[in-house]
Amino acid sequence: MKPKAAVATAALLLFPLAGCGSAEAGSGSAVTVTVGYQSKTINTVTAGTLLRSLGYFEKELNALGDGKTYKVEWQDYATGAPITAQMTAGKIDIGSMGDFPLLINAARGKQLNQPTHLVSITGYNLRGGLNTIVTAPDSQLASLQDLKGKKVSTSVGSAADGTLVRALQRAGIDPDKGIEKLNQQPAVGASALSAGSADALSQFVAWPGLLTYQGKAKALYDGAQLNLATFHGVTVREKFAKERPAVLEAFLKAQSEATAYLNDHPVAAAESVAKATKLPAEVVYLYNGAHGISTFDPAVKPQLVSALKKDVSILKEAKLTGDVDVDSFVDDQYVRKALGSSYARQLAAAPPPAASEVWPKGDATKTLAFKTPAELLNYVAGHKDEVRAAYVPDATTGTLWFADKAVWVADGTTLLPFVTPDTAQVYVAAHGGARVVTYADALGRAS
């Protein structure tokens, strides 16, 4: 499972149009394949950071036996937009990004006569839990209604912006007039939240979890409340796919191998991604762990395609795209061939059930799973100095969250965790005698 990683060329980080050779670079038997990825967007790791570190793509290319010498050029970007720019310029062959950027990728490709196709999925959450709206730790904002007239930072055109728009609409708030939207890159928005120049931040993985873990934010809205799938996927230039189908198939086989590695070795994978991205491993595991917010599977599930079609209207309203023909953009023929007989099984597979989990200190290889949040709390109470991280699923949405950052409700002898105060209050209102308690109180009750 752990072949030696082949040497790849250095990533181009900041200048998407500088110094790039043609995606068809090389002469004779030499071929350069350029892959654009987002190291900090950790739901793309099976087509980016983790895949690169494992060297599986290079191994698959070397096994083609077609007499050609392949070199993989990995280019790391902060968002999907520059990857799309490079792809439509013919300078990136394969890229990975979130669902909303994928639609923009499709629209730009068609507009510039450089069509692209969605060929596989990296990570997904069928309820939408990959996006979260957070506020400052000491903020008095407790629900979406409290955002009226407030400054909210997001990245327009991203899935996080889509979550914000939909959430506000469901709450009866005009996304254009009810708030002051700040269009900012995630890092800028995070700084704005800390500085007080933004009242809230709507962002995608891993920013909400990171800021919460660092004590710089708390959750206001769990994207899973929308109950609409969000995902990240792999897009390829149509010309490249037609000219080098064997190379694309090799990539998708490698992605499948990286997915199997992540699912079989979630702790080791989290540590590897953390080392490459400088993100805390505990945050990576929140999203990519055995019971994490994201499920990894290359299969292009119908639920995800359906959600993608629903996303088009959000981008059209923002005047970022016109109509997008999702059916012509989605093309799973290559991943079907790459995965062979296992594709149908993966297509039908459901995400693993949510579970409470503890990552003990001093053990880099395994975590402990518990049947109930109360059992986890009992363990934590008795091993306070031995816990690296503790995770619990929201009682309503199943979204995993840090146990010490969750909102806890005591309902008789039952202890229930929630990602946000709002969902906790909804439960309390519907269950007489239930009440919100502190984390310390919950630990005491469990022990």
From TrEMBL:
The keyword Cytoplasm does not apply. InterPro entries: SsuA/THI5. Keywords: Signal. Residues 1-25 form the signal peptide. The keyword Signal applies. Residues 78-269 form the SsuA/THI5-like domain. This is NitT/TauT family transport system substrate-binding protein.
